[in-house]
Amino acid sequence: MPDTPFPRLNRRAFLKAALATTAATAGLALASSRGRTEALAQNTPARIVIAGAGAAGLAVAAQLTRRLDRAEITLIDDRITHLYQPGFTLVAAGLWSPERVQWANANYVPSGVRWVRSRVAEFDPETNRVVTQDGTAVPYDFLIVTTGLDLRYDLIDGMEQGLIGPDNRIGSVYAGPEAALRTWQAMAKFREQGGDAVFTRPPGDLKCAGAPLKMTFVTDDRLRETGMRSRARMTYAAHDGTLFSVKPVNEKVKELFAGRGIEVAYSHVLESVEPGRRIARFRHGTETVEMRYDFLHVVPPMRAAPPVADGPLSWKDGPFAAQGWLEVDRATLQHRRYPNIFGVGDVNGVPRGKTAASVKWQAPVAVQNLIDTIAGKAPSAAYNGYTSCPMITRIGQAMLVEFDYEGRLTPTLPLIDPLAESWAAWIVEEKALRPVYAAMLRGYG
To answer: Which end of the chain is less congested by CB atoms within 10 angstroms, N or C?
Structure first.
């Protein structure tokens, strides 16, 4: 992996960046605690099941073990490796190794939590039980759903994860650490030869909606490093008429794309790929548009996992029904039909909140409201939709974009302008977030 090419800094800039790093580690942790009511451990024999052992499930398990005495807490998931997904972009940029984003899940499962190593097959809220794929029925008094989402490459005709890599000139930062590495290899091959690069974004909600833009910016910067930018044409295929759902960020990205010669094909939805001919086909209104590529970055459609999407807990109508998201109140994160159920993380059917930073804010809200419910009280904590997107714009620079449900910018670090490219924001992304994230898994922040 190549070294990160940091710009030369004067003393003042260096101190500013160092302060930003310190502030990021402390400030983001404090920010995630807003809306949480601290309390002494509550004595309860309640049976609590957490369905899913990703970032959301582990963070919730850790917080519950500190907030509750005598509770019987069960974590259901068969994954043994935890993936630090915010680092996938850095792997795909050629900066990190895949090993750096993989941790042992066992290291983060709190002592005293029963770990059922199987996947959820079915939720049965009428009888208050979860059924696993091996047929085990796990009863609960309270349930927290943290099953995340599924990457649906199969919804793109001709596309599968095995195509990711330099041989097919296809990348996809979402598919895992090894796929992120193969994405880097495909990008590296492209920057040696040039040609046509196409970047996609599917309709609907997705995890870390800034990642498709990050990969576009990173590819542009990598081309410039080798003097090959003039031999490459770059096109970003936006799923609708915008590049980013937050208006000021959208305008900034449009400005940056225009300045760097990145073309935009608005309202182009990827429907199929033909790797042998290097052809991507898009739906554009009622037309089918073909684009030839020498590097194609595919972002798959995303859906809630089948036990949620196809079961009784999903939205049955409205904007979140098509992707099968969990039906929760956007503020309390409590299920709208089953008050003993809460949701945290990517699975939630709320207007925003599919990032690791969102989990940091959601977890304490759901935990507090679960504890309130156990005590027979109304939920007292509220989630405001906080979402954070460290938008890499070139190697060594980024924008730290933070916003809420209403699309209002909500910066937590006063040293960093959310709409300005800065090294300080890059330091947050490349250095500070990983330890903050690890602390979150242990229930801190």
So the answer is: N
